[in-house]
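Recall that a protein's primary structure is simply its ordered list of amino acids. Everything else, from secondary elements to tertiary packing, is in principle encoded there. The following example makes that idea concrete.
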Amino acid sequence: MAEVFVISDNIVSPIGKGTAGNFVCLLKSVSGIKVHNDGMLSSQPFCASLFGNYSASLEEDDADRYTKFERLLILSVKDALQNCGVDTKSEKTILIVSSTKGNISLLESEERNNKMDQRIALHSSAAIVAKYFNFVRAPLVVSNACISGLLAILTGKRLIESGQYENAVIVGADVISKFVLLGFQSFQAASDEPCKPFDADRKGINLGEGAATIILSSNKKYTRDNDAIKISGGAVSNDANHISGPSRTGEELHRAIRTALKQSNLQPGDIDFISAHGTATIYNDEMEAKAITLAGMESIPVNSLKGYYGHTLGAAGLIESVVSIQSLKQGLLLPSMGFSKPGVTTPVNVCGTLLPGSYNNFLKTASGFGGCNAALVFCRQN
């Protein structure tokens, strides 16, 4: 099978625009999470990472032509494409869009009619983005709760390995609406203070807005010397435990991790760090810690980026993968913001300070509603 490389990436977030700009801010411990008093979203104060008065545009009339969600997708893809030579008009290039909620906010701001019903569909947003960049192949949509970003990357990897495509442009985004926020508040899963992944005093998640793009290719002409990142393995699983509650044992996420490692021809000890889902909810962090321990990786440094970005839903797997790729390249593992003392029953090695090192391989995990789990292994090619 063809090897699959990450040839370009991009992040658009409340922290900053562009991968490099985001990473610089992360090194300075900048977080997008703030307390908001926005009656349009919630009757009570809440913590989240939001764009605020988001005014970024592509052209003067874009605010009328594209929704906020669509503009985020387009901006992220545009910057990523500028950094590589991939031809969107090629039959060998596919666009994959990842989101959990897409244009769902239109239900709150627009009159319900046939036109709005069509616009709110995720495949409509994917078609809009594909048309903007002149993709000739029909785009794909991946929407599987909070593993959507990782599953989209894995889907692109598999399509390239199958020989159907040489390039995959994968973009994910989500924006926060009243519908989304109230949903998490109804579960009592949203924290009213900055989140603390894996910490003993964690109270729940903070939601976040953002977009990210990863471009994959099997064509080595797009890779840079001594800077190539390969996706060497990936797997998904489902624990079928509960619609909103993860497995109590971690066995199913462990299976995805084990399969991803096997595909990569790596042993647990070959992984230099783990970028965890780390939502800061009681049950997710506990389950992830158990899965990591079952995989024999409890001593490997682990971080969660939710303290910087909040939970960006369908963009989370992409944003966090891009940041972790930068950690590989720059030899700097970011600490888990908000962590001070272990709060899981099977202790894992949560990174509490910036950790310089020589890193070659990392594991990215994610889990979501419905019991879905995903694991991907990224390797630096020296």
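Residues 68-82 form the longest helix (15 residues). The chain has twelve helices and 15 strands.
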